[in-house]
């Protein structure tokens, strides 16, 4: 075999492998979306129907009108949005303050705080479920979205601080010093100088917290008993019936739930990797 | 550069503005040394109330018997101290060994498969042309972005016994091949979720599918940071592909790999959402892992919160040992100081 053919063959094999990986990754998502648009006789069949023919909006409109567990999925999407947005806004305030402290000041317990952040991030949330459940019950927050919001703030905060501190540290300190010299107070300096420069990082961190909260399942499952207050992930399981499952409905609802996450994901994908691997790449 | 401009802005008397700054700080009434603590306080309170206190409570509850009467909102009765009873009943239970086995085997297999597949895809992405690489990255992003609950229901649908596409595809195999490999040729109606082994098989596929993109993208980021001169030198010296990976890529990416291994282990050790949905809740006790068992004891009636907490303590203890390795690694490689 001459080198040129060999090189071409190699290129071909690489591209084929790339397409195989792409298909493996995308096929389940593709199947989810297409099932949502198939009429029932194309879903409950033993033959393979690659795409809906003709596409039907039955399931999508049904999950909005009839819904599941007694409510339209609008209700669950709304609940999920309320919980995720509130948790993100609250969390962002706490995280920004703490990240500024860690990235801008030298103080005695700085290292201990950072190590504490790393350790609490690793405590399994599932393990805290039982004590948090009794706590929420005792405070009268059972069945309240507020309880869920607060818990999600707690769950996402350590990672948010960890990720945000690198963004704060990246803002040159000289800018703040210049602002002080011009006579600005601490608050003005923070608000007018640091905040606008950290804002892109804050957005990235917030999107990450949003996705985590939006996807959260275990706490939403145990802390909410009232069906009108279910979040989307919890409502999803009610499409699974005793005898048969409403696959069209469940796939339509899953698609609706996945869309916002997918959009956000493509926006922050690069920062997420750097945040999670936390500097280990640079070595 | 910026420092010069600061001095320039202060004019000929740099000491004057500094003094102004100091008086201002005094006027707000917050001494300088207190500022970081004030900034830290709200976050610290949240972490203490929502993570540290529950952690303490979890340990405390594991030594008590906590049932319906102890958790009711009005007039709860005090929990009875039972010492190590919860722990000894865990050890006596058959469920402990099955769920520990399920937890560990699942984590080991899933972490290994995720890392192997993720690394291979990362290496592949590095070799592909820019257009193809972006195309594949966008594809794997779709798998990564799917929420865990949606992952579970989608894979449940793919492996559905009657109308699932997997049984359809397996039926396409020539009968002789199918019988040779699997010992059967007819897959119609194969129920994947009744048996613990096949249930975990689907769970492993679903979790690997959702988590290999993160590994691939991280490995790719790591590969991009390796100077290409190293590879050129290796090629000059006549190194083979495998040799280059062993001698250059792997050693340089070692810090990345160690973080990825630990993160994946932690995530896969406590898998809950996907297992809960694939197993259909807490009906199949044989399929429990530690977190599902803990949940089942604490939240089915009658609730045994103390016992559930004790299982959670065991799970947390295992994870903290793994975390310790992770934290040590981070502290070594990053400026926590």
UniProtKB/TrEMBL annotation, chain A:
Annotated localization: Cell membrane
Domain spans labelled ABC transmembrane type-1: 77-268
Transmembrane segments: 12-33, 82-102, 114-133, 145-168, 189-211, 247-268
Protein name: Sugar ABC transporter permease
One term under GO cellular component: plasma membrane
Broad class of the protein's primary localization: membrane
Keyword Transcription regulation included in the entry's annotation: no
PANTHER family per record: INNER MEMBRANE ABC TRANSPORTER PERMEASE PROTEIN YCJP (PTHR32243:SF18), MALTOSE TRANSPORT SYSTEM PERMEASE-RELATED (PTHR32243)
Source organism per UniProt: Planotetraspora mira
CDD domains (UniProt xref): TM_PBP2 (cd06261)
InterPro entries, A to Z: BP-dep_ABC_trans_perm, MetI-like, MetI-like_sf
Keywords per UniProt: Cell membrane, Membrane, Transmembrane, Transmembrane helix, Transport
GO biological process, one term: transmembrane transport
Entry similarity comment: Belongs to the binding-protein-dependent transport system permease family.
Membrane topology recorded in Swiss-Prot or TrEMBL: Multi-pass membrane protein
């Amino acid at each position: 075999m001459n080198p040129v053919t060999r090189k071409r063959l190699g290129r071909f094999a690489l591209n084929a492998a790339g397409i195989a990986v792409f298909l493996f990754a995308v096929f389940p998502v593709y199947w989810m979306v297409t099932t949502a648009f198939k009429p029932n006789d194309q879903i409950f069949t033993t033959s393979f129907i690659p795409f809906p023919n003709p596409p039907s909006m039955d399931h999508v409109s049904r999950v909005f009108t009839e819904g599941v567990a007694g409510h339209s999925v609008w209700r669950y999407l709304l609940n999920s949005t309320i919980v995720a947005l509130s948790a993100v806004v609250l969390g962002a305030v706490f995280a920004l303050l703490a990240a500024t402290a860690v990235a801008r000041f030298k103080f005695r317990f700085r290292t201990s705080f950072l190590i504490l952040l790393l350790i609490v991030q690793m405590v399994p949330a599932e393990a805290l479920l039982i004590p948090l459940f009794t706590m929420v019950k005792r405070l009268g927050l059972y069945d309240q979205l507020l309880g869920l919001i607060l818990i999600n703030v707690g769950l996402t905060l350590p990672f948010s601080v960890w990720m945000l501190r690198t963004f704060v540290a990246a803002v040159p300190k000289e800018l703040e010093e210049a602002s002080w010299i011009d006579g600005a107070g601490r608050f003005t300096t923070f608000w007018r100088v640091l905040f606008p420069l950290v804002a892109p990082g804050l957005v990235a961190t917030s999107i990450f917290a949003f996705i985590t909260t939006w996807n959260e399942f275990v706490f939403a499952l145990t802390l909410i008993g009232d069906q009108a207050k279910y979040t989307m992930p919890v409502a999803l399981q009610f499409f699974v019936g005793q005898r048969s499952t409403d696959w069209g409905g469940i796939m339509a609802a899953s698609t609706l739930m996945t869309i916002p996450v997918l959009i956000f994901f493509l926006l922050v994908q690069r920062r997420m990797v750097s945040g999670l691997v936390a500097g280990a790449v640079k070595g | 550069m910026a420092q010069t401009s600061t001095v320039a802005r202060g004019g000929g008397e740099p000491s004057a503005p500094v003094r102004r700054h100091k008086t201002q700080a005094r006027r707000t009434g917050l001494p300088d040394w207190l500022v970081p603590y004030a900034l830290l306080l709200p976050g610290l309170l949240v972490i203490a109330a929502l993570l540290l206190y529950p952690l303490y409570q979890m340990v405390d509850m594991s030594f008590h018997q906590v049932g319906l009467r102890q958790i009711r909102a009005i007039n709860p009765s005090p929990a009875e101290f039972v010492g190590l009873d919860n722990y000894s009943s865990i050890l006596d239970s058959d469920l402990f060994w099955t769920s520990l086995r399920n937890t560990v085997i699942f984590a080991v297999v899933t972490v290994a498969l995720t890392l192997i597949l993720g690394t291979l895809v990362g290496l592949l992405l590095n070799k592909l042309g820019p257009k193809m690489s972006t195309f594949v990255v966008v594809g794997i992003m779709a798998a990564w972005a799917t929420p865990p609950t949606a992952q579970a229901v989608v894979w449940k649908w793919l492996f559905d016994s009657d109308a699932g596409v997997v049984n359809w595809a397996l039926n396409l195999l020539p009968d002789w091949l199918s019988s040779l490999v699997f010992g059967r040729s007819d897959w119609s109606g194969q129920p994947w979720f009744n048996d613990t082994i096949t249930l975990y098989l689907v769970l492993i596929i679903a979790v690997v599918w959702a988590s290999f993109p993160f590994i691939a993208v991280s490995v790719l980021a790591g590969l991009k940071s390796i100077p290409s001169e190293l590879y050129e030198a290796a090629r000059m010296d006549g190194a083979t592909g495998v040799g280059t990976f062993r001698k250059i890529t792997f050693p340089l990416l070692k810090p990345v790999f160690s973080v990825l291994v630990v993160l994946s282990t932690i995530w896969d050790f406590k898998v809950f959402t996907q297992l809960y949905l694939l197993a259909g809740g807490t009906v199949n006790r044989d399929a429990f892992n530690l977190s599902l068992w803990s949940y089942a004891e604490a939240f089915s009636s009658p609730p045994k919160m103390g016992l559930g907490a004790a299982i959670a303590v065991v799970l947390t203890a295992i994870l903290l040992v793994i975390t310790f390795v992770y934290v040590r690694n981070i502290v070594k490689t990053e400026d926590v100081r």
